[in-house]
Amino acid sequence: MTFTAMISAALPIGIGATVVMDVWGLLLRRLGIATLNFAMLGRWAGHLCSGRVRHQAIAKAEPVRHELALGWGMHYAIGLLFAMLLVVVAGEEWLMAPTLWPALAVGVGTVVAPLCFMQPAMGAGFFASKTPTPARNCLKSLATHVVFGVGLFLSAGLVAAG
User: Fold this and answer.
1) 129 is in which domain, residue-wise?
2) Whole-model pTM?
């Protein structure tokens, strides 16, 4: 599969899966369950561009210009990168007839990124250990990434049918 073909397949799959994840987040917020504030992701990315990777508490870090837009852009770029991973691992045959398990495995596997990289970098600790409810936060992250995996599968199904 050429790089262009991978991008062509991964783009709608990544966007679709990220939209599914966002609908999940909207549902959680309507139920009164706090979710990631994408402005904080943008703030972290803005500071990363100036060389700062780790923060004691990202919410207390100096705001960066257009951090909310930057955060949303990062969120979708990350979703696209994870979709590319799925396309590379699962291959062309899977793209023609997607099945749930490869997409779900990649979705669940992506939970490593927030638990072991993003949360520590933003000051929440590994596996949300510096938050008031680490186990609950880890379960929320896991559930969200399961939803992302389902979104990868559903989006790949739409691409295959199209």
Assistant:
1) 3-161
2) 0.93
- Rounded to whole angstroms, how far apart are CA atoms 35 and 142? 13
Q: Domain total for the chain? A: 1
Token code pair at residue 162: 């199209």
The per-residue pLDDT for range 84-138, each reduced to its tens digit, is: 999 999 999 999 999 999 999 999 999 999 999 999 999 999 999 999 999 999 9
Q: How far apart are CA 24 and CA 52, in angstroms?
A: 31
